Amino acid sequence: MSEETYDIAIIGSGPGGYRAAILAALKGRRVAIVEKADWGGCCLNRGCVPKKDWHHTAQLIAASRNFAKRGIAGTLSAGMDAAWEHQEGVVASVQESYVDYMKRLKIATFEGTGRFVDTHTLGIVGRDGDRTLKAEAFVIATGGRAHVPEPFVAEAGKVLTSDMLFDSRPPAGKRVAIVGSGVVATEFAFIFAMLGKEVVWLARSEPLRKIPFSPQARGVLRDALARHDVALRKVSGFAAVDTSGDGVRIKLTDGDKVEVDWVCLGTGRVPYTEGLDLDKVGIECDEHGFVRRNPQLQTSQPHIYAIGDVASPEMTANHALSDATVAVNNIVDGRGQAQDSAWVPLAVYSAVELARLGMDEDAAEDEGLEPAVGFAAFETSPRALGQDDTDGFVRLIGDMDSGALLGGEIVGSEAGELIHLLSLAPDRDTALRWLASGRYNHPARAEELANATETLASKWGLADAILR
Ligand SMILES: Cc1cc2nc3c(=O)[nH]c(=O)nc-3n(C[C@H](O)[C@H](O)[C@H](O)COP(=O)(O)OP(=O)(O)OC[C@H]3O[C@@H](n4cnc5c(N)ncnc54)[C@H](O)[C@@H]3O)c2cc1C
Ligand SMILES: NC(=O)c1ccc[n+]([C@@H]2O[C@H](COP(=O)([O-])OP(=O)(O)OC[C@H]3O[C@@H](n4cnc5c(N)ncnc54)[C@H](O)[C@@H]3O)[C@@H](O)[C@H]2O)c1
C-alpha cells in the first residue's frame, strides 16, 4: 500500500472541495483531492450547472411569448430530451476544464472513497486499489444527498429525485408531479412547464417559505408563475404512492388522489458523511447530520475543516465556494477569518430570478438597528422596457444611523448577476456611497441599484451618508 504526504487533503470535489483545492494550490501548497463519483460534485453534474442550462432554454421559450409585439412571427416549443442532451454537453465541457486546471496546478487527484484512518491519515478505496495519504490539514467537502420522505420511494422512471433527473434521460411522460415548495421545486415547476410538461405542483406550504424574501418579491414570483400557468396546489400531506402499472397515483392525506406519469421530488437535501469514519477522529455532527464546526470552519479537530453542504445548512454552491475561501485562508495564512454566511448571495431561477443577501428589515430590527428601504422598480427602466421584461425591483436595506448597507434583494431578469454589485462592494459601511457614486453603463439594469440608493438618500435623510 503506497503512502504520500501533502499539506492539504480534500475529500469531495464539488464547488467547495474543487475551489479549496485550486486556492490552496495557487497559494503554493501541496494538495490532494479525493472524489468517489463525478468530478465537480452535485453542482456541476446534478445541480446548478445543468439546471441553469435548462433554465436558459425555459427563459427563451417564456420570452418568445412577447415576440409577436415585435413582429417576430411563429411559436417556439422545447422538449426535455433535447434539453437533457444540451446539458450533458455543457457539463462534460466544464468537467474537462476543471480536471485540466487541477492537472496544470499539479493537484494530486484520486478517484475513490476517502475515510479517516486517524487524525492525520486518510484511507482511499478506489478503482486502482487501496492507498493511504497523510496531510497536515484536511477539508471535508462531501456535500449532501437528496432526501426522500415517506411515503415516496425513489424509483427509476417513476419517482425521481433531482439527482436522478440528471443521471439519466428523464421519462417521456408529459404529466409530472413536482413535490415540495423549496428552491428545487420552485425552479423546476417553471422549467418543466416551459419544456412542454404538464406540471402538477404539490406542496404543503407557499414557495420559498424558508428564505426571507419580501412580500413584494413573493408577489412578483407568484404573478410570473401564474402568467405561465404554473400554480402551486397546497396540500395537507401525502398518504400513499402507488407506482404499479402505468404512471403514478398519489393519495393525499385529505383523501384526494392525483394521477401523473411520473414524479420529481424537491423535498430537501441532507448532509452526506457516510463512510467517512468521523467518529474515529472524534468529529461530531449536529441533530440534522451537519458536521459541527466553529465560525472559522474548523471541526473539533482544529486542522480538519468542514465546508459546503456537509456543514452549511444553506446548502448552496455559493456558500460552498465562500466556505472554501475562508477555510483555505485560515489553513494557509492562519487568518482566523470567520465565515459570515448571511453575506453570501443566494439566487433562485424560476419564472423570475430572485436574489438576496444580508438582513431583511425584521432581522435588522432584531439586532436593534433602524432599517430604511431604498426601492427602484424595473418598470421604468429603459433597458427593461426595451426588453419587454419589466418584472421586479431592487430593494436595498440601509441603516438609518450610519448609512451602512444591511442587506439587499433584487428580483427580475439578471438578478443573479446584479446581486454581485452588493456582494462585491468593498465594505458594508461605504457600500451605498460606492453604489451611488459609481459609473454606470446606460441603459442598464444595474442603474436601478444607484436609483435605489437615491430613494434612501432623499426619503430617509441619508443624503449625507450616501451622496457624499
Ligand atoms: C437541482 C439543484 C440545483 C441547484 N442549483 C443551485 C444554484 O443554482 N446555485 C447554488 O448556489 N446552488 C445550487 N444547488 C446547490 C448546490 O448544488 C450545492 O450546494 C453544492 O453542490 C454543494 O457543494 P459541495 O462542494 O458542498 O458538495 P457537492 O457538490 O455535493 O460535492 C460533494 C462531492 O463529494 C463526493 N464525496 C462524498 N463523500 C466522499 C468520500 N467519502 N470520498 C470521496 N468523495 C466523496 C461526492 O461524490 C461529491 O462529488 C443546486 C442543487 C440542486 C440539487
Ligand atoms: N438556486 C439555488 O441556490 C438552489 C437551487 C436548488 C437547490 N438548492 C439547494 O438545495 C437544497 C435542496 O433544495 P430543495 O428545494 O430540495 O430543499 P428545501 O429544503 O429548500 O425544500 C424542501 C421542501 O420539501 C418539503 N418537504 C420536506 N419533507 C417533506 C415531507 N415529508 N412531505 C412533503 N414535503 C416535504 C418541504 O416542505 C419543502 O417544501 C436546498 O438547501 C437549496 O438551498 C439551491
Automatic annotation (TrEMBL):
Residues annotated as catalytic: H442 (proton acceptor)
Biological process according to GO: 2-oxoglutarate metabolic process
Molecular-function annotations in GO: dihydrolipoyl dehydrogenase (NADH) activity; flavin adenine dinucleotide binding
Keyword Secreted: no
Binding site for FAD: K52, G114, D309
Keyword Flavoprotein: yes
Cofactor: binding details: Binds 1 FAD per subunit.
Domain Pyridine nucleotide-disulphide oxidoreductase dimerisation intervals: 344-452
InterPro entries linked to this entry: Class-I_Pyr_Nuc-Dis_Oxidored, FAD/NAD-bd_sf, FAD/NAD-binding_dom, FAD/NAD-linked_Rdtase_dimer_sf, Pyr_nuc-diS_OxRdtase, Pyr_nucl-diS_OxRdtase_dimer, Pyr_OxRdtase_I_AS
A Pfam family annotated for this UniProt entry: Pyr_redox_dim
UniProt record similarity statement: Belongs to the class-I pyridine nucleotide-disulfide oxidoreductase family.
Protein name: Dihydrolipoyl dehydrogenase
